[in-house]
Amino acid sequence: MTEVLRRSQLGPYSFADEPPPGYSLPILPGHTSPGRLERVLRAGHFAVTTEIAPPDSADPNEVYERAALFDGYVDAMNATDGSGAHCHMSSVGMCSLLTRKGYAMVMQISCRDRNRIAIQGDVLGASAMGVANILCLSGDGVQSGDHPEAKPVFDLDSMTALNTIRIMRDESRFLSGRKITSPPHVFMGGAANPFAPPLDYRPHRLAKKVAAGAQFVQTQYCFDMPMFKEYMKQVRDMGLHEKVFILLGVGTLASAKTAEWIRSNVAGVHIPDSVIKRLKGAEKPKQEGINICIEMIEEARELEGVHGVHIMAYRQEQYVAEIVERSGALEGRKPWHPGMYEPVAPFDGLVETIAPDSPTAQENPL
Fold it and tell me: From CA 344, how far away is CA 7, in angstroms rounded?
């Protein structure tokens, strides 16, 4: 007789039907993926995601060491896909390594580098590995990266990539019409930039991504909360906050010089003069940059329609734990990480599915 593992056997994990690392959670009614991120968001919790920087290396230990910085502080990690058109370890490779450890990964797909054949194949492979979240991006132009002579693809853009994956998941077919025997069970995401002109168009672009299949979005860096609040007002007026989970992008600034460089050289990032002035006047600019990030999160938590934050701390990943703790973003939750797992019984891949309205789930759903 096959043994079924329950929460009481597995220890104090985030979910009542928690499997050991490397095995997927059951898909709950109304969910499209077995992922932790979707569960947290649909349960009404304020989610925290971050980005894990890919190494310029083939050593898996470099990936594991970077991931460990976020243990217990984030609900999911984005594995970036050639961000800035620079070459690093691939997103699918990082996801392969980290899903084996049990981490919740968001695999980014840049349309710059792949045609529809490669993208659809990567989606199937990622889902087979246990990747439950996919974020579709058009991708930065090759001229901005370290291989400007590369030939860009752009067979699809972020909208058509979302629609392609939605068709694969919901209709069990490729774009060609050929049948998929087992569809990918994924939670689909896109990017949003509330700060790029024309500002009035931005909520309408979000609506198009939702129509294409986006279930969550992560925004560009926010350093101007009044501007973001105006964007969210338009989003609420259109009813989009009830159709998509919105995670505000926040980040750290090491100095006024860094902020000025980003504002001048990184497309789509808006940093107001008041922030740069504040950094210039700070005795400890790096700490002030962390304070600004925390303040953004605290304000975001009070905004209707904001469902979480996406922390982008490029080369300052060691400060994510402080940012999460001081901002109170997790509201007392402790996200699962591999170090919490203590095997106490044999496991054959079967987990008892617990309905969300059952006494066990209600007792400790997260």
Answer: 11
Query: Could you tell me what percentage of the chain is helix, strand and coil, using 3-state DSSP and rounding each to the nearest 5?
Result: 40, 15, 45
- Determine the residue type at 34: P
pLDDT of residue 353: 44
Cα(74)–Cα(70) distance, rounded to whole angstroms? Answer: 6
Whole-structure pTM value? 0.90
Question: 77 and 70 in contact (C-beta within 8 Å)?
Answer: yes
Torsion of CA 202, 245, 316, 55, to 10 degrees: -100
- Phi/psi at 307 (nearest 5 deg)? -105, 0
Domain spans of the chain, in order of start: 21-254+299-340
CB 343: neighbour CB atoms within 10 A? Answer: 11
Q: Are 135 and 174 in contact (CB under 8 A)?
A: no
Which burial class, exposed, middle or buried, applies to 174 when counting CB atoms under 10 A from its CB (0-12, 13-18, 19+)?
middle
User: What is the 8-class DSSP label of residue 17?
Assistant: T
- Most distant CA atoms of the chain, gap in Å: 69
Distance CA 73, CA 87 (A): 28
- Provide the phi-psi class of 154: left if phi over 0, else alpha when psi is between -120 and 50, else beta: left
State the pLDDT at residue 345: 52
Per-chain mean pLDDT for the chain: 90
Beta bridge partners of 309: 48, 248
Q: For domain 21-254+299-340, which architecture applies? A: Alpha-Beta Barrel (3.20)
Nearest to 77 by CA among 287, 252, 262, 218: 218
H/E/C letters for each residue in 24-51?
A: CCCCCCCCCCCCHHHHHHHCCCCEEEEE
